[in-house]
Design brief:
The protein has 255 residues and is an alpha/beta fold. 20% of the residues lie in helices and 28% in strands. Strands 1, 2, 3, 4, 10, 11, 12 and 13 form an 8-stranded mixed sheet that branches. The chain has a 3-stranded antiparallel sheet with strand order 5-9-8. Strands 6-7 form a two-stranded antiparallel ribbon. Strand 3, helix 4 and strand 4 form a beta-alpha-beta unit.
Length: 255
C-alpha cells in the first residue's frame, strides 16, 4: 500500500456528489488549487464545503462556486468573492457564517474526536441566540435561519457565559503543504499553516497536494507540522503559483 497518488485527478476520483469537504487555505494562501481544479473537471455537485472563505471569483473554491457545484458552505467570511455574495443573497447558496476562531476550533475538535466545546465568542449575538440567515428566499426573506444554541455560565459567582459549539468533520479534506513525504507527514509554509492542518484532521479521508515530495525518513521529526496518521493520500503537484487576493498599490503623488 502507498499513500502517493499518481495525479490530482486520481486522488479526487472517488469524491461523489453530495460529499462534504474540509478545504484548507487562508484567502488564496495555501489553497489546494490543483485538487480543486481536478475536482472541477470531475462531474460532482451538491457539495457541502467547510473552509475559512471561498476563494475569489476565478481562483480556488470560487471555480466550483461559479459552476454551481456547492450547495452549502460553512465559512468565517465572504472575502473577495462577489459570486459568493450574489448566490447567498439570491437564495442559491446556504451559508453558515461562523466566527473565525470558532471555525478553527470546530475543525480541530472534530479531528481530535471532541464532539463539542464551550466558547465565549458569539455570546449575546445571533451566533448564540439564533436567527442568522443561512438561506434567503427569492424575495429576500429568510428561508432558513440558524437555531439558538445552549449557553452556560462557568466560573462560579460572577462567572462568564459561554456558548456550546459542535465540532465539524467532513467526508474528505483537501489541503496544500509545502513539503510532504511518502507516508503523509506534512510541513506547511508560514500562514498556510493556519487552516490546512485543522482541515486535514477533520476529514475522514485527507488528500494532500505537496510542492515537494520526499522519501519517508527524510524529514526531521521536529519539523513535521502534521503527522501522516491524519493523511490518506499525497500527490506531488510541484511549486505553487502564488496568487494575490486583493492587490493594493500606492498612488503616485502629484507635485
Amino acid at each position: 500500500m502507498t499513500k502517493v497518488a499518481a495525479s490530482a485527478a486520481a486522488a479526487v476520483a472517488d469524491i461523489t456528489s453530495g460529499s462534504s469537504l474540509a478545504v484548507g487555505g487562508f484567502g488564496l494562501c495555501g489553497i489546494p488549487d490543483a485538487l480543486i481544479d481536478a475536482l472541477a473537471a470531475h462531474e460532482v455537485t451538491d457539495l457541502e464545503v467547510i473552509s475559512n472563505n471561498c476563494g475569489t471569483d476565478a481562483h480556488g473554491l470560487g471555480i466550483l462556486l461559479a459552476d454551481k457545484r456547492i450547495r452549502r458552505i460553512i465559512a468565517s467570511y465572504v472575502g473577495e468573492n462577489s459570486e459568493f455574495a450574489r448566490q447567498y443573497l439570491a437564495g442559491e447558496l446556504e451559508v453558515e457564517l461562523t466566527p473565525q476562531g470558532t471555525l478553527a476550533e470546530k475543525l480541530r475538535a472534530g479531528g481530535a474526536g471532541i464532539p463539542a466545546f464551550f466558547t465565549p465568542a458569539g455570546v449575546g449575538s445571533p451566533v448564540a441566540d439564533g436567527g442568522l440567515p443561512w438561506r434567503y428566499a427569492a424575495d429576500g426573506s429568510v428561508a432558513v435561519a440558524s437555531p439558538a444554541k445552549e449557553v452556560r455560565t462557568f466560573g462560579g459567582w460572577g462567572g462568564r457565559r459561554y456558548v456550546l459549539e459542535e465540532a465539524l468533520t467532513a467526508d474528505f479534506a483537501l489541503v496544500h503543504a509545502r513539503i510532504g513525504d511518502t507516508e503523509g507527514n506534512l510541513v506547511f509554509e508560514k500562514s498556510a499553516r493556519n487552516f490546512n492542518p485543522l482541515a486535514a484532521m477533520a476529514g475522514r479521508c485527507c488528500i494532500a497536494q505537496v510542492e515537494y515530495l520526499v522519501p519517508a525518513g527524510d524529514l526531521d521529526p521536529a519539523r513535521i507540522h502534521l503527522p501522516g496518521v491524519f493523511v490518506d493520500r499525497v500527490v506531488h503537484t510541484g511549486p505553487q503559483l502564488k496568487q494575490i487576493e486583493k492587490r493594493t498599490v500606492a498612488q503616485e503623488q502629484s507635485t
